[in-house]
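Summary for the steering committee. The consortium agreed at its last meeting that each partner would contribute one worked example illustrating the joint modelling workflow. Our contribution is presented below. We chose a case with several input lines so that the handling of multiple components could be demonstrated. No manual editing was applied between input and output; the record is shown as generated.
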Amino acid sequence: MIELESVSKRYATGIQALNDVTLSVEDGEFVFVVGPTGTGKSTLLRLLYAEELPTSGVVRVHGRPVDARHDHDVSALRRSLGVVFQDFKLLPDRTVFDNVAFALRVIGSPPEWIPAQVRQALEQVGLADCERALPRQLSGGQQQKVSIARAIVNRPRIVLADEPTGNLDPDTSWDIMKVLSRINLHGTTLIVTTHNKTIVDVLRRRVVELAGGQIVRDERRGRYASDLN
Amino acid sequence: MTSVGVAMRRTLTDERVEIVAPAATVVVPVGPPQTRRRWHATAVSLAFAAREGATSFCRNGLMSVAAVLMIFVTLLAFGAAILVLQNLHRVAAAAEEQVLAVAYLRDGLNTRQRTNLANRLRGVDGVATVRFVSRAEALRRLEQSLGGRVNVRDVVRANPLPDSMEIHPERPGDLPAIAEAARAVAGVADVVAGEEITGRIDAAARFVRLAGGVAAAVLALVAIIVILNTLRLTIVARRTDIEIMRLVGATASFVRRPFFVEGMIQGGVAAMAAVVSLGAAYWLFVTRATAAWPFLRLVPAAEAMPVVAIALVVVGLAVGALGTAISVARFLRTR
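What follows is the complete predicted structure of the assembly.
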């Protein structure tokens, strides 16, 4: 479960990214976070994986307050989350297999455990045949799938995706959403920030709309834009 | 709604049925893997750090070569400074060795009287050693100092030199007082101490040691700063690795370790290369310089290089490891 209680975030530059945001996401939910650029969508996700600290308010993940004061707490939190980025954040000089395995190696997983887990994750995203390829040899959609495989290889209970289809064409975007939906169907909580109106309108999942750093709409089976508009 | 959207909805619906159906269900356990024993986790972590550090060193070929070269050049200068310092130290020590008072003895003293006289001189404050030099030995030294080209006994029939006592002070500055005290000892005819030149040698030796020490310290500081900056650049180039490691839940210490190893490899390789190059160059220099100017009293390579090797390897490894740790720390802070 994810909870934000009266959370505000003001950056050192003076920009107020979030202003008194209260939000609750149940286990297994699929939530789209929408809104114009600069309304705090990415900041919201960054607070969830403790990349940023709130200026005020409390962020809870799995029922526990996110405490970034202790390195081990941050690490433990991130091991229970998977994060997917618009720009994939893959290591260009490592193969697909090594990019995904990297997520397991850096948390000290036993080496004998890694190959099976990596292959299972790659199968889940449909890239079982590409494990020896380098990122530059893959299309944008395939690279995003590698990024998703890396996010789920540690079997996280929550996956956060920040504009996962932002750099992709419509067909590939649907392919990515198919993969993410499948992950959600396995019981993983999914929070996706997006500007893709078509995807949000077709999937009709929970939609949280941000404007000026505040939640202006929260609909159980929403569309990209409010029905009132 | 686009046609692609409709197809997607149908696909997702199909998959939902497929996944929910027991026969097709792929069970993906939720939550992190089973916790293992701590020692095993530590061993895995250290093995990862060593492997990743070594792999990164090879993988980032050009950057590694640039870093090693930069550290190599810096350590070369630092090592050369140590060699210069060692030689200056030797020159200063040699000059200090020359600082002595010579007490010329009256003729006709027997062995017991000479022994008593030596003991009295040893009892003077600030005297380190007293050595008897017979007139025969003094003559031999005179002939040697003339390069063996002149036989004094061909010129004068009897040895004109007196017996003497060479008095070495504990500190060159004590020599005037020692000379004064020695003059009062019975059996001493005269004392030659060269107080003025002794004072100058003492001051020069102190200055050489101080200046050499300061120069080596400044060069060490410059070496550390240059190495830290070089390593910082290599870390900046790898910030994506660090970002990804942190995002997937690696602890700060886990992130640091491979870079720590990589930094030590860079520092170690550069230090080894610097030791070998400097050792070869210094050996060649000493060999040729001594052949050309035999009066030069250079520290032999075999004597000078162990100190240089230890200093360079320690500085290379320590600064390599420390430099990466400091640089990586910048990317590990949560805002």
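The longest strand of chain A covers residues 16-25. The helical segments of chain A are 41-48, 71-79, 96-105, 114-124, 140-152, 170-185, 197-203.
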